Amino acid sequence: MDEGENLTSFNNFLSIQQEIAAILSNTDWNNTKPLGKLQAVWREIRTIRESQQDQIKELIKAWQTYEHDVAGKTTCGQDAAQILSQEEAVQGEVTQAKQSLSRAKEEYEDVQQKIETSKAELNQLVQEREVVEKQTTQSLPKARYDVNLYMNITNIRWQFDSEPEEVKGFVCNKNDVKPFSLNSKQVSKFFISNYLWDLIEEDW
C-alpha cells in the first residue's frame, strides 16, 4: 500500500468520524441500545485512527533519519557498504511500517462495515418509530371514544392510581356507589369479568 492509499484511508477515517459525530449529536432516542452500539464503533474508529497517525509519523521519521544519515555519512567519506547496510535497515523499518498500515486499513474496512450495519439498524428504528407514531395518532382518538363509551354503558369508574396487580374502582348509579378491589394475581380474569358484570347487572 503506497503513501497515496495511506492518505486516502486516513481521509476516509476523518469522513466516517464526522458522519458518526453528526449522527450521535442529532439523534434523540428513548431506546439507547443502537446509540450505545454506535458509540462503541466510534471509540474503535478513534483507536485505529490514532494508531494510523502514529504509524505515519514513524514512517516519515524513518525516511528523514535515513536521508540525514546518508547525506552526513557520505560527506564524511563513509564507504558504500556501510551506507548500503544502513539503507537496508531503514528499508526494513519502512516495510514494517507499511505492513502495520496495511493491517490498520483492514481494521478500518471492518469498522466501516460495522458502521454501515449500525446505520441500517438506525434507519430501521426510525422507520419503526414513524409507523408507531402514525398508528398511535390514528388509534388514540378511537381508543378514547371506546373507553368513554364503555364507561357510560357499564357505569364503571376505574381507580388508576392503584397497584399494577390491583383491579380497583367502583360502579355508580343514581342510588348508590359499589366499590370493588380485586387482586389479579389471586383471581383469574374470568372471575374478575364475571364479578364486575354481576355488579353491573344488579343496577339494570
UniProtKB/TrEMBL annotation:
Q: What does this protein do?
A: Acts as a component of the essential kinetochore-associated NDC80 complex, which is required for chromosome segregation and spindle checkpoint activity. Required for kinetochore integrity and the organization of stable microtubule binding sites in the outer plate of the kinetochore. The NDC80 complex synergistically enhances the affinity of the SKA1 complex for microtubules and may allow the NDC80 complex to track depolymerizing microtubules.
Q: Which GO terms describe its cellular component?
A: Ndc80 complex; nucleus
Q: Which InterPro entries match?
A: Ndc80_Spc24
Q: What does the UniProt entry say about where the protein is found?
A: Nucleus; Chromosome, Centromere, Kinetochore
**What is the protein name for this chain?**
Kinetochore protein Spc24
**Coiled-coil portions:** 87-135
Q: Which UniProt keywords apply?
A: Cell cycle, Cell division, Centromere, Chromosome, Coiled coil, Kinetochore, Mitosis, Nucleus
Note the Gene3D superfamilies from the entry.
Answer: Ncd80 complex, Spc24 subunit
Similarity section: Belongs to the SPC24 family.
Query: What is one GO biological process annotated to this record?
Result: cell division
User: Could you tell me which Pfam families the record lists for this protein?
Assistant: Spc24
Task: Note the subunit structure.
Answer: Component of the NDC80 complex.
Query: Which Gene Ontology MF annotations are present?
Result: microtubule binding
**UniProt-listed PANTHER family:** KINETOCHORE PROTEIN SPC24, PTHR22142
